[in-house]
Amino acid sequence: MTSDDSPRDDDDLPEFLRRMFENAGAGENPFAGGIDPEQMKRLSEQLGASGIDPAMFQPLMASMQQAFSQAGDDGIAWDAAKRQALHLANQDGRAITTGAKADLDQAFALADLWLSEATTISELASPARPITRGEWVEQTLPVWQELAEPVATSMADGLIEALRAQSPEDMQQMLEGAGRMLRSIGGQMFAAQLGQVIGRLSREVVSGGDVGIPVMPAGTAAIVPQNFEDLGRGLEIPDDQLALYVAARELAHARLFRHAKWLRLQAIAQVTDFARGVDIDVERLEDLAARFDPENPEELKTALESGALLPEQSEAQKHALERLETQLALIEGWVDVVTAEATSRMPGGDRFTEVIRRRRAAGGPAEDALEALVGLRLRPRRLREAAAMWRAVTDAVGVEARDSLWDYPDMMPNGGDIDDPSALIARLEARARGEDPAPDDMDQALAQLLAEEADGGSPDGEGTGDGEPGSGDKPQA
Predict the structure, then answer these.
(1) How many beta carbons lie within 10 A of that of residue 295, not counting itself?
(2) For 316-357, how does the pLDDT look when each residue is reduced to its tens digit (9 = 90+)?
(3) Domain map of the chain by residue range?
(4) Cα 245 vs. chain centroid, distance in angstroms?
(5) What per-residue confidence (pLDDT) applies to 185?
(6) Sign of CA dihedral 395, 396, 397, 402
(7) What is the mean pLDDT of residues 457-467?
(8) CA pseudo-torsion sign 401, 403, 407, 412
(9) Would the pLDDT of 217 be above 80?
């Protein structure tokens, strides 16, 4: 509105601002040729005449220019996230020393031999190796991007809706044209926070399988020596023994995902299904937009990091999270049991298991930040129960029958098996004797469905499917 409260005509807007929004709506970068200083001067004069401090718009314009220069086709600045993560990962500049590499190579070699006695799942095609924090970022970022993209999209959409709600009616059409630019700004903010989280996480993880989900490339096993040194500090456990245990655990995790290729796809799909259900608290975002100060974006950054913009989980999300936690518990429980068997030669093996288990249960600051940013908690709550189930199965039917449960998705245990493994053990024992296993609820439901189909779709079996009365066809006159 102008000083005389009359509606503002579009001609009163600086020409380059109108061009900027029009180009943004057409999918072009309005800053491709840079910002004309003369146009900025004219904008400053008009803003000053209206009583608005032109300095307030300079950081905002810079953010817009950066958003367009860094955003990908989907409006999310993944390159910026990568740079931010690598900056944090490589801050201390520590490289892998020759001694550390030799010690870990030796630990991997011995752990591989011991592991082959504890599981029938074959060894990896590529040797395990120590990697730097920066290498961990490089190798895992594609998975983090896949997991976070649905949330980033929701965040950007929420920003657009919040700005529309806070804008006067005469600016709605202009905001429609600027949708891509606003999406880029929202995507850039999210990507910047994700880069910080991954960078901090790279300073906490000890191995490739440390976060539970398969973030490393398939068939890859690795340990981050810089973080391994921090793991053993103050534990009064010999470094060589701890290295053997961690190496065995990492190799077991990598072997499992290489053997059960479907398992990796299933785990990633469950996480992305959960992430697609994440919505943004638009009312909270509207409140932030109303108070947003371009010179002080700290409040928005804090809201992103704290998870304040994520509303409570829906029922569908809770079910998805429950399924994911069950699967992660089964994976981690199997890894625990196999690692304990492989390292049983070492004295005090229970201490190593407890150290890793407590560390996983407690998590770290970066895991907390990831949970706040995406709403996902990657710490299985039923790990001890799942490990107990795998021990019971091993004692009852042996290693080969136990590991065969990972051959196909429909053979994988479920939450009920964790609660009571007796039915699972009975099925495996019957299969070992060459008997058909007792049908479970799924088998009975499938048999009933097939019987109904054979009877022409009638649940009471009256139909014959051949044109006779009761088959669903009209009787002939």
Answers:
(1) 11
(2) 777 888 888 899 899 999 999 999 999 998 887 778 887 787
(3) 10-52, 82-374, 383-435
(4) 26
(5) 66
(6) negative
(7) 48
(8) positive
(9) yes
Output the pLDDT for position 288.
62
Encoded tokens for 253: 């995790």
The residue-averaged pLDDT of 366-370 equals 62
Rg for the chain (alpha carbons), in Å? Answer: 29
Give the residue from 95, 328, 67, 60 showing the smallest Cα distance to 211. 328
How high is the pLDDT of residue 47?
52
CA distance 404 to 409: 11
For residue range 39-92, what is the model confidence (pLDDT) as tens digits? 555 555 655 555 555 554 555 555 555 555 554 445 577 888 899 899 999 987
Q: Which amino acid is at 261?
A: K
- Region of residue 278 (phi > 0: left; psi between -120 and 50: alpha; otherwise: beta): beta
CA distance readout (Å), 198 to 125, 133, 138, 202, 264 = 28, 10, 10, 6, 20
In order of 61, 274, 374, the CA distances from 319 in angstroms are 43, 9, 16
Tokens of 417: 């098996």
Q: Determine whether 83 is exposed, middle or buried from the number of CB atoms within 10 Å of its CB (0-12, 13-18, 19+).
A: middle
Token pair for 468: 């006779």
SS (H, E, C) 263-290: HHHHHHHHHHHHHHCCCCCHHHHHHHHH
- Given a contact cutoff of 8 angstroms between Cβ atoms, the answer to whether 253 and 264 are in contact is no
| DSSP track, 282-338 | HHHHHHHHHH--TT-THHHHHHHHHTTTS-PPPHHHHHHHHHHHHHHHHHHHHHHHH
Note the pLDDT tens digit of each residue in 376-416. Answer: 666 667 888 999 999 999 999 999 999 999 999 989 999 99
